[in-house]
Write a structure and sequence with these properties.
alpha+beta, Jelly Rolls, 2 domains, 4-stranded mixed β-sheet, 33% strand
Length: 282
């Protein structure tokens, strides 16, 4: 990437689609083709062959989700001009995480998947009581504590409109810094329709996740997660603006390149492509 282009972007490490990294994963009788810019900082393939009959054995549980990790790639974003004398030149980073997840119930359509995702998220973080050593009920416990502090600071019924507004702003900030309910939306990108939701908040948290969920078969679905983490004291406005709009640009391009097809169709397409390239060469 040229220095002029980097200055225009406002940060180093912006994904460059001129050179692509390719990986393929077999999930039962399906083949997942995943491509993304090759200028990653690091990446790891955990499992490229998945037998869904072995899901209960090979999967792990993290918070409210049961999944098999396929792969993770990480992009590092730095200041456009690095200063070796400063301890931090990093503005933030992006993880793209590919996972196969289970809803533990058959998924017939996107709407059903969306309802499951919203319900599962709410039931976990908004459980009546927080479980010890777990994030279950975290948001409920957070709001109880924030309400208690707000009542102590401004009173249960604030005496003036200014104090009432200050209390409301305090509680809204706290609400958005926790785990408010998610709202799934149907999005169509490339060949696929996804149930998409966002978690986090650029203004009140130092991270933002956008997750695209694609039904595979039976109770299983593919999760493509774009997880942005940034240094709140060092992230510049141009970088934050890019993160805000990345679902309409960067994420869209990655999803347009993604392909999930039957195993036999994938092999045939590869063979035809190879034959075409050989014919052109001759």
């Amino acid at each position: 990437m040229s220095f002029i282009k980097m200055c225009k972007d406002g940060f180093r490490g912006k994904p460059d689609f001129s050179d692509l990294l390719h990986n393929a994963f077999q999930i039962d009788d399906l083949v997942l083709s995943f491509e993304c810019p090759n200028n990653i900082y690091e990446g790891h393939v955990y499992q490229d062959l998945v037998n869904l009959e072995q899901f209960d054995v090979e999967s792990k549980i993290e918070r409210h989700e049961r999944f098999i990790k396929l792969a993770t790639v990480y992009f590092l974003f730095q200041k456009k001009i690095l200063n070796p004398l400063l301890p931090i030149n990093k503005q933030g980073g992006l993880y793209i995480r590919l996972r196969v997840k289970s809803a533990e119930e058959d998924i017939d359509n996107i709407s059903q998947l969306s309802s499951f995702l919203e319900r599962e998220y709410y039931d976990f973080y908004h459980a009546p009581e927080q479980s010890e050593g777990s994030m279950r009920g975290y948001h409920t416990d957070l709001m109880k504590e924030l309400t208690k502090r707000a009542n102590k600071q401004w009173g249960e019924i604030p005496e003036s409109e200014d104090r009432k507004r200050e209390k409301e702003e305090y509680l809204i900030r706290g609400f958005l810094s926790g785990y408010p309910p998610i709202n799934c939306e149907l999005v169509e990108v490339g060949k696929n329709k996804y149930s998409k939701y966002s978690e986090g908040n650029i203004k009140y948290k130092s991270e933002l996740r956008r997750v695209y969920n694609l039904p595979i078969k039976n109770e299983f679905y593919l999760s493509i997660e774009f997880w942005y983490k940034y240094e709140s004291m060092f992230a510049k406005q141009k970088f934050l603006d890019w993160v805000r709009s990345a679902d309409e640009t960067f994420e869209k391009k990655v999803l347009e390149l993604l392909d999930l097809s039957p195993l036999i169709d994938s092999y045939i397409a590869k063979a035809v492509k190879g034959l075409n390239e050989k014919t052109k060469a001759e």
